[in-house]
Amino acid sequence: MIIAQLSDTHINDESPEAAARLRAAVTHLLHLPAVPDVVLITGDCTEHGSETEYAHFRELLRPLTIPVYVIPGNHDDRPRLRALFGPQGAQAMPDFVQYTVEAGSLRLLALDTHVPGQDGGTLCPARLQWLEERLSEQPERPTIILMHHPPFRCGLAPFDGIGLDVMSEFGTVVARHPQVERVLAGHLHMGVQRPLHGALAVVCPSTLHQLLPDFRRPRSLEVSFGPPAMLLHTWAADTGLLTHSSLIAEPRPVLVMHDGQQWQSPPWPVRG
Running DSSP on this structure, what letter comes out for residue 87? Predict the structure, then answer.
């Protein structure tokens, strides 16, 4: 099972850069040695949540013939996102973009941390209760939770000021359910990870640009834009769940270092 995670695509009517970057991400994904089984997009799909931005977002994803699942971020519009993608997964909440997905040996739980008109995120008691109930259903099955706002502080004041406001309550739920392997998030436009009550919380970089902050000045946000990236989460019985970073770049030849029987000597042959 291979799961690709994209995040913070920020499709914008006023700038072609975000569209070009998402188009490049889709091309990159389709040219991977093994095309993923599922694609997850963890929020901020558009910049302003307009109908035209969502239509453009949908069109950019059209080359993907594999299942794509999305959740809203703080820049999104929940009703328009729901109208665009319709019902997703199963056991969906009627008023939020929260649902379950059966993905091979894994179970995915999509959470909606969107708060209309605000940059920070939350999970109200109803959404937290839904999570508790879903986790209680299959306690032995490896589970991935996806959400936009990371459930931890990143140490940069501007981002921590618009983070998830129920980190403790969310962590308490996760701590009761050891089958949670990963908590996947976005929002920060940079790759970050930390342990979380037995799970690993992982933030996916943005497809638009990756922030390279100066941690010597945590109260400001001075950045140098790095290359866009995505994450690949792979599951196999002998390895468990692994997470890989994948920089989004032009397709390049695939060189064979090991042919399945022995190591190859440089110059490595190009895979046919």
Answer: S
CATH-assigned architecture of domain 2-247:
4-Layer Sandwich (3.60)
CB 246 within 8 A of CB 230: yes
Distances from the Cα of 173 to the Cαs of 41, 88, 177, 179, in angstroms? 23, 23, 7, 12
Q: Which segments of the chain does DSSP mark as H helices, in order?
A: 17-30, 51-61, 78-85, 125-137, 157-160, 167-175
Percent of the chain with pLDDT over 70: 99
User: With helix as H, strand as E and coil as C, how does 112-170 read?
Assistant: CCCCCCCCCECCCHHHHHHHHHHHHHCCCCCEEEECCCCCCCCCCHHHHCCCECCHHHH
User: Which region holds residue 192: left if phi is over 0, alpha if psi is between -120 and 50, else beta?
Assistant: beta
- Spatial CB neighbours of 234, under 8 Å, sequence gap ≥ 6: 1, 2, 3, 241, 242, 244
pLDDT in tens, 133-192: 999 999 999 999 999 999 999 999 999 999 999 999 999 999 999 999 999 999 999 999
Query: Residue 260 burial by CB count (10 A; 0-12/13-18/19+): exposed, middle or buried?
Result: exposed
pLDDT (0 to 100) of residue 219: 87
Task: Say yes or no to pLDDT of 225 above 70.
Answer: yes
Which sequence spans correspond to the domains of the chain? 2-247
Q: Which two tokens stand for residue 108?
A: 């995915």
Backbone angles phi, psi at 160, to 5 degrees: -65, -25
- Pairwise pLDDT comparison (249 vs 228), residue with the higher score: 228
Q: How many helices (H) and strands (E) does the chain have?
A: 6, 13
The string of pLDDT tens digits covering residues 96-108 is 999 999 999 999 9
